[in-house]
């Protein structure tokens, strides 16, 4: 087909549930992208924490190319070597004994929630079905996961939400304590809230949730879809907190850009998912697993993980410099290379406007709500790219109209 699609064609052919920026990227390498007109951009967005090794990393390209010439898909009527290699690597690298593969973080979280309820049902009875989550959390877009997520805007207009789900205040252990009881089957939490504003969990809060789960025979689920696979400087964030969950979900950076999700758990919990209780047509796809294995092995190298903290310090240093110039941020927070810069009252709700202004300067970044700039770049982004990108952000903020 001799046709070059444009941004306007998105409005013509695709549902209006997204509102993408004006440019259409067509090529990427490392931490840089190029659009249809050949304009170059520095990428601080990372595909929303997905492109943890940047664009077209050689190890991932090689894994995809090699596997693409061997075997693409089987379904779970059979197993395959890439899935088994990846599962073994994840088990040997974490607390887990067993792994379930899916296509996305939302599906991994759906599986985790179903597993928690099935475990409680089989071990304690049908009454034990309460799920405790937290306001401003985000766990996916399936009906179950979006209901467990603590943001009403994502459930409005879709009818009654599933029952047995309650929400406490993030980083407030007493709030959680008021909700957890003998009928609780699971406590689900992001060690670092992403969509809710890039807020790191307080160590005492997460440790307290572990104690509550143990006290009431509930399962602790860590949603590490956004903060896992090197993002915080550990392979998974729970390792840095010293708090071990019963179930962990992973996606985004797990595939380095290729769609894949995973749910990790222990033998004790996994045994209730007998044949036929859950499944996924594409879960454990050989292509996805081959790329994910290359991503995990590369990200898990000590030099890559150690480099996260070094790069995060440069980001914070540059954000503080911008703040000193414009007095624009009320808070700069995060963990590793998942960083949020919250605008103060003077720059209230300038997040979307900043994204558009940054594009004009040659920079791609994210927002987390209307008031927080979110940075989730490649874990191996060069220092020069960080500083150049921050100069572009400086210029973009300088163009914002605060009078409208």
TrEMBL record:
It catalyses: N(2)-acetyl-L-ornithine + 2-oxoglutarate = N-acetyl-L-glutamate 5-semialdehyde + L-glutamate. Its cofactor is pyridoxal 5'-phosphate. Pathway: Amino-acid biosynthesis; L-arginine biosynthesis; N(2)-acetyl-L-ornithine from L-glutamate: step 4/4. Transmembrane segments: none annotated. Binds 1 pyridoxal phosphate per subunit. N(2)-acetyl-L-ornithine binds at residues 141, 280. InterPro entries: Ac/SucOrn_transaminase_bac, AcOrn/SuccOrn_fam, Aminotrans_3, Aminotrans_3_PPA_site, Class-III_PLP-dep_AT, PyrdxlP-dep_Trfase, PyrdxlP-dep_Trfase_major, PyrdxlP-dep_Trfase_small. Gene3D superfamilies: Aspartate Aminotransferase, domain 1, Type I PLP-dependent aspartate aminotransferase-like (Major domain). The gene is argD. Pyridoxal 5'-phosphate binds at residues 138, 223-226, 281. GO terms for molecular function: identical protein binding; N2-acetyl-L-ornithine:2-oxoglutarate 5-aminotransferase activity; pyridoxal phosphate binding. It comes from Salinisphaera hydrothermalis (strain C41B8). Homodimer. NCBIfam families: arg_catab_astC, argD, PRK01278.1, PRK05093.1, PRK12381.1. It is found in: Cytoplasm. One of its GO terms (cellular component) is cytoplasm. The keyword Glycoprotein does not apply. It is an enzyme of class 2 (transferase). This is Acetylornithine aminotransferase. One of its GO terms (biological process) is L-arginine biosynthetic process. SUPFAM superfamilies: PLP-dependent transferases.
């Amino acid at each position: 087909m001799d046709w070059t699609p444009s941004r306007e064609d998105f409005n013509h052919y695709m549902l209006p549930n997204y509102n993408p920026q004006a440019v259409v990227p067509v090529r990427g390498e490392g931490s840089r992208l190029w659009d249809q007109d050949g304009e170059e951009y520095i990428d601080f967005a990372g595909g929303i924490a997905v492109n943890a090794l940047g664009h077209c990393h050689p190890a991932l390209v090689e894994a995809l190319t090699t596997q693409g010439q061997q075997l693409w898909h089987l379904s779970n009527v059979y197993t395959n070597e890439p899935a088994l290699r990846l599962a073994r690597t994840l088990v040997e690298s974490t607390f887990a004994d067993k792994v379930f593969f899916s296509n996305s973080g939302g599906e991994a979280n759906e599986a985790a929630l179903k597993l928690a309820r099935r475990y409680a049902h089989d071990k304690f009875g049908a009454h034990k079905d309460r799920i405790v989550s937290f306001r401003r959390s985000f766990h996916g877009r399936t009906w179950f996961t979006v209901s467990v997520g603590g943001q009403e805007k994502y459930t409005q207009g879709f009818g009654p939400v599933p029952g047995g789900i309650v929400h406490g205040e993030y980083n407030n252990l007493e709030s959680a304590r008021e909700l957890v009881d003998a009928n609780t089957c699971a406590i689900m939490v992001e060690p670092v809230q992403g969509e809710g504003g890039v807020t790191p969990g307080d160590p005492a809060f997460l440790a307290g949730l572990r104690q509550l789960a143990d006290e009431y025979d509930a399962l602790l689920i860590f949603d590490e879809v956004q903060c896992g696979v090197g993002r915080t400087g550990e392979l998974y964030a729970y390792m840095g907190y010293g708090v071990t969950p019963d179930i962990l979900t992973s996606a985004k950076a797990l595939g380095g850009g290729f769609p894949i999700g995973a749910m990790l758990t222990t033998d004790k919990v996994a045994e209730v998912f007998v044949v036929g209780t859950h499944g996924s047509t594409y879960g454990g796809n050989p292509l996805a697993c081959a790329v994910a294995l290359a991503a995990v092995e590369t990200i898990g190298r000590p030099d890559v993980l150690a480099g996260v903290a070094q790069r995060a310090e440069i980001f914070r240093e540059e954000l503080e410099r911008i703040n000193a110039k414009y007095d624009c941020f009320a808070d700069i927070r995060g963990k590793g290379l998942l960083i949020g810069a919250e605008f103060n009252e003077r720059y209230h709700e300038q997040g979307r406007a900043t994204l558009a202004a940054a594009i004009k300067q040659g920079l791609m970044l994210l927002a987390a709500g209307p008031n927080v700039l979110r940075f989730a770049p490649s874990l191996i982004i060069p220092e020069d790219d960080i500083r150049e990108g921050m100069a572009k952000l400086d210029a973009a903020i300088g163009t914002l109209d605060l009078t409208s």
